[in-house]
Structure formats: C-alpha cells, structure tokens
Amino acid sequence: MRGLFWTEDKIVKAQTLWQEGLSAREIANLFGSKKNTVINMARRNRDRFPARQDARHALPETCEAKAPIRHPDRVTRVTLSGAHVTMPRVPCIDGPAS
Q: Which Gene3D superfamilies match (predicted)?
C-alpha cells in the first residue's frame, strides 16, 4: 500500500509557503506534485489555508468608489443595456462645455 503524500511536515511547510503568497502551482513544483493536489489539500485543511481573494473579484467592502474623471469635451451616458459609456459632448444636446 502506498503511503500518504501529505504528511504533517509537508502540510506545515505548504502552509508557510501559502501564507507567503506562493501560488498553488509554485508550491506543487517545490513538492514535485501537481497544482490540483495542492488545491485539494488546501480545501481539506481550510482552517490552515484561508481562501485568497482574486483581484478581479474584490469584496465590496474593500472596493473604493473612484471619482469619475471629468473631461470638458466628453460626457458619460447610460446605454439601454445599463452600461456607462463616455461619449463626445454634443453642444445642442448637452449645452456648452463648462
């Protein structure tokens, strides 16, 4: 019978590397395993391997609302689909630039 790959020593070392910010792929390369092996072990030990926040999906409380950039020759409009777009100013619609 084959022994377990993830011994307590390896888990502690992986936990340290995880906290240092190494990716699952980098940790796997150091241990000579595959990325999914590290991910599955991290899921089984979620208390020791907290979930990381993806930069593309930041939590709402960490998102700061950016002030819109105002250009004198452009205006922001909302399309039918709800998208906010920046368009050239049309003097007969938007009035003179201020």
A: Homeodomain-like (1.10.10.60)
pTM of the model: 0.52
> Looking at the DSSP assignment, which residues form a beta bridge with residue 57?
none
User: From CA 35, how far away is CA 28, in angstroms rounded?
Assistant: 5
Residue keyed to tokens 């092996």: 37
Mean pLDDT over 75-89 rounds to: 85
Using the Cα atoms of residue 32, residue 54, residue 18 and residue 51 in order, give the sign of their dihedral.
Answer: negative
Where along the chain do its domains lie? Answer: 8-50, 70-98
User: What is the CA angle 16-20-26, rounded to 5?
Assistant: 85
Residues 11-52 have pLDDT tens digits of 999 999 999 989 999 999 999 999 999 999 999 999 998 887
Dihedral pair phi/psi, residue 7, rounded to 5°: -80, 170
